[in-house]
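Amino acid chain:
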Amino acid sequence: MVLATAHEIVEKRELAPRIHWMRVCAPLVARQARPGHFVMVLAHDKAERIPLTIVDTNPDEGTVTLVVQEMGTGTAEIGRLRVGDRLLGVLGPLGRAGEIEDVEKVILVCGGIGVAPMYPYAKAYRSRGAHLTTIVGARTREMLIMLEEMKALSDRLLVSTDDGSFGTRGFVTDVLAGLLSEEEQIDLVVCIGPAVMMRAVCGLTRPRGIRTVVSLNPIMIDGTGMCGGCRVTVGGEVKFACVDGPEFDGHQVDFDELIARQRAYVREESMSYELHKCAGRE
């Protein structure tokens, strides 16, 4: 049993530049979390709420594993915390747990930090006896994370980098296209990563009629469905990713709308981050 106070960081390490793995004391969350669930994390009383997928849990120790990539002020504030520091809040588990189907052959497609939220899915499908092919992609070799963990769960692990510094040169969609031309039977594709990547993956699987599940990451404020910030259009209907998702049928998602909404506050986020750095808080 970990002797730690609530929301204390009990272990932390860097997976890649500005990408942090941390184990946090949150006993109630650890007991209830399932694949697909996330938490809203608050670094301090004036910080923004940051949604983070629950990567792993240890109910006996009362801890949850989180991975955070520093992309702006809020994530940078979490990233600079050390072992022994406490997060002000870890609210969850939130969202709908993923539906783990009884299928034979599954392809997991992970882009960038999408490997982290894919990990619990890999564990769940592995426990059901599914044959797993995992594709992991990143911009460069140094940005690849959790390869050993995914390799241990997969029957086959394929890696691509944009610059060719590791694995196949190109995108995960290039690797997936090759697999789709080779495999006679693929029951399910699960895809987590940047919206542009997920849209491209669905463009490959849709004409082949392969069920494709995606995990969406729109702008999210409260995580409970009240603010409406995470609304997405799925099958022509408005959904809220925080309560209706984050898992959806990828073939039904309006990715163009999602991408446009994700870019709505890029300028303001950049200004905030620059002020944060100038203030010496990085």
